[in-house]
Design goal:
Blueprint lengths: L4 E5 L6 H11 L7 E4 L9 H15 L4 E4 L9 H13 L2 E4 L4 H11 L1 H10 L3 E5 H5 L4 E2 L2 H7 L7 E2 L11 E4 L19 H10 L5 E5 L3 E6 L4 E6 L3 E5 L2 E5 L4 E3 L25 H10 L4 H14 L7 H17 L3 H13 L2 E5 L4 E5 L4
Parallel strand pairs: 1-5, 2-3, 2-4, 4-5, 8-9
Antiparallel strand pairs: 1-10, 6-7, 9-12, 10-11, 11-14, 12-13, 15-16
Helix pairs in contact: 3-5, 3-10, 9-10, 9-11, 10-11, 10-12, 11-12
């Protein structure tokens, strides 16, 4: 049974009103392993600046180090980079994602099956904090908010969502910015859709799929250990289904069983017997050399160990020597693609590799 929590923020992810929510979700985590997924805004030209702003907020207001995991394009990244990103998400216990385009993020996350990694974080008693654009991806379907408001589309249609909430029996779509009033004399409620577009989209939904709305500067806090949702912040949440609207009032606590339209289905932990366990470098190297189903996962883990030294610190020199030994065996046996992947893994981790007639040598790059 999952014991993690999800915070869905209607807006204001770095506003003072939401600082309390972040603190509440960070408090039980020891140590805190917080990451920011930059994919939602990965298409923009100011990605570094946006990431820096989030990192500075966490450092200043929450006294927490937030590490940005950069992943802006599924098609332009390698299978190894896919595996590393997924591992880094699973290893975190506080995963944040925020503004940008929900459909752009889905185009990168769906092929990765990132929903499985997010559910794994929850099953390990971790927390997800998804705000604004990212919040829309958590439901069964996602409204094309960016296309409607920024690009213009006459007949908007739903996109398949990550459906993380559906894994816990909450069959719904998520609409943040529910009470937006920026339009003044025209309707920008419901995440800038306006009521006519929202009603049109709701008519497209399969029977039994609800709309979960959350007002701006408001947080819906899902706790799967207590099986409840709590509303904090300035305003309310909403559960719309079959023409009926249930208001989840500010400061209220609601049992999730009152909202469920499907049975709760707990997903099994994603670790399998053939996946490498622990940080033992030789074992990981042997898995890589075997070329089996877990070889890419093991290679991704080796890249991370070469960068961090591993839990409890593994001497990088031992790690590099082991990887080079495996690479030599791979070249000898004609596994040149694997040998190239191992070399690239070391290069990406800050090591210079020189191949000689008898063996390969390594050194730290000058700027390390």
């Amino acid at each position: 049974m999952a014991t993690g929590r999800i915070a869905i923020l209607g807006s204001g992810e770095t506003a003072p009103s939401m600082t309390k929510v972040h603190r509440e979700f960070l408090a039980p985590l020891d140590p805190v392993l917080a990451v920011n997924l930059d994919t939602t805004y990965g298409f923009q030209l100011n990605v570094p600046q946006m990431s820096m702003k989030l990192e500075e907020y966490f450092a200043t207001s929450l006294l927490t180090r937030l590490t940005t995991l950069h992943f802006s394009s599924y098609e332009k990244s390698t299978e190894l980079e896919h595996a590393i990103f997924k591992q880094q998400v699973r290893q975190a216990n506080y995963v944040f994602a925020g503004p940008g385009s929900p459909t752009y993020a889905l185009a990168q996350w769906k092929p990765l099956e990132l929903q499985d990694d997010l559910i794994s974080v929850l099953q390990d008693a971790g927390a997800l904090c998804f705000a604004s654009a990212a919040a829309l991806t958590l439901g069964a379907f996602t409204a094309p908010i960016y296309e409607v408001y920024k690009v213009g589309t006459e007949n908007p249609e739903w996109h398949e969502g990550l459906d993380v909430l559906g894994a816990f029996g909450l069959n719904c779509v998520v609409i943040p910015h529910f009470d937006n009033s920026e339009g003044a004399n025209y309707d920008t409620r419901f995440c800038y859709l306006g009521e006519p577009r929202l009603l049109g989209l709701e008519r497209q939904l399969p029977e039994g799929v609800a709309t979960l709305g959350v007002d701006e500067h408001t947080a819906l806090l899902f706790d799967f250990e207590t099986d409840t949702v709590t509303v904090q912040g300035r305003s309310h949440g909403y559960w719309r289904l079959g023409g009926e609207v249930r208001v989840l009032e500010r400061n209220s606590i609601t049992s999730l069983d009152e909202l469920r339209t499907t049975a709760y289905v707990a997903k099994e932990n994603l670790a399998t017997e053939d996946q490498p366990q622990g940080d033992e470098v030789t074992q990981l190297a042997e898995v890589v050399l075997s070329g089996g189903a877990s070889s890419l996962e093991a290679l991704a883990r080796l890249v991370q160990l070469a960068t961090t030294g591993g839990e409890g610190f593994i001497d990088p020199s031992t790690l590099v020597e082991e990887v080079l030994s495996v690479r030599t065996n791979a070249r000898t046996s004609g596994q040149y693609e694997l040998a190239d992947q191992l070399r690239d893994a070391l290069l990406e981790s800050g090591f210079d590799i020189k191949d000689g007639p008898a063996a390969s040598t390594w050194s730290l790059k000058a700027d390390n």
